[in-house]
Design goal:
The chain has about 270 residues and is mainly α. It is about 70% helix and about 5% strand.
Length: about 270
């Protein structure tokens, strides 16, 4: 029989969060992606709600292992809302839960990955890297603090989503598209800034015209500063779009070509 009187406790939230932080991607597969991981992080709680070895538990487990894929940084918002609905409605809520997961996982994937997997690492990673290049160890502590803050955010969102339930989804739905677009735009802006600040490649070729020495890099800078780094990034993006080209292969191509051009004097060493 369904244990409909069970209410999640602080210990339940801690257990879900630990599993989410450390094991959520361990069950990833090409067929249904995060489905088994999603079930794993909430399995102890649905066992308490429906009881062990019950037909309801088997039905719920089957329902929770449908295709699922979203951002690691927002997955427990869906989990918390899911558990809140099931705790209240029991086995009757499975269709609602399935619709909730399908409707939210795409939006949260775009928002979470744009902000926490791209935007924040780009901004604070660039700051920390610049500090490291300048010999300032504060960048290490900044990077650690940012990641601790992200983990704290992930830890707190579960209980918040559980308490808010469906109301959270209703209030946030209208803002998801705008937030996704804003995060994507800011992420693209930061990528452009990183190209200009972190990729420091200069053309070392000097053209000799009689007594006149023409530094090619100076002439390129007169046309457009940082044109060479931008062109290299564009070339790498083009390579990654080609068939049978992987990121690892592109890295080695860039590495070997850079060494060869540096040896020939085309790229400046200093």
């Amino acid at each position: 029989m369904t244990n409909s009187n069970y209410k999640l406790t602080k210990q339940d939230f801690k257990q879900i969060n630990r599993r989410s932080l450390f094991t959520f991607q361990l069950g990833w597969n090409y067929e249904r992606m995060q489905n088994t991981s999603y079930l794993y992080i909430m399995l102890p709680q649905i066992r308490k709600i429906y009881g062990d070895n019950t037909d309801e538990l088997k039905q719920v487990m089957k329902n929770e292992t449908q295709f699922f894929n979203t951002s690691n940084f927002f997955n427990t918002i869906i989990t918390g809302t899911d558990l809140a609905i099931q705790e209240k409605e029991g086995i009757k809520s499975l269709e609602t839960v399935s619709g909730l997961k399908v409707g939210l996982m795409g939006s949260f994937a775009a928002i979470g990955d744009s902000i926490f997997a791209a935007l924040i690492p780009a901004i604070f990673g660039a700051i920390a890297a610049n500090m490291a290049v300048a010999g300032n160890p504060t960048g290490v502590f900044l990077w650690v603090a940012v990641n601790i803050g992200i983990m704290y955010f992930r830890w707190r969102q579960l209980e918040f989503a559980y308490k808010e339930g469906v109301n959270l989804v209703t209030r946030m739905q209208a803002k998801l598209s705008a937030l996704t677009d804003a995060a994507t735009l800011l992420g693209v802006f930061m990528v452009g800034a990183l190209v200009a600040t972190m990729i420091n490649i200069k053309i070392g070729t000097v053209i000799h015209l009689g007594d006149l020495n023409v530094v090619l890099q100076d002439k390129i800078d007169m046309i457009l500063p940082k044109l060479v780094p931008a062109a290299i990034v564009g070339l790498v993006y083009w390579m990654l779009g080609r068939k049978n080209m992987t990121a690892t292969r592109a890295i080695f191509i860039v590495l070997f070509v850079s060494i060869a051009l540096s040896a020939l004097g085309v790229i400046a060493k200093g």
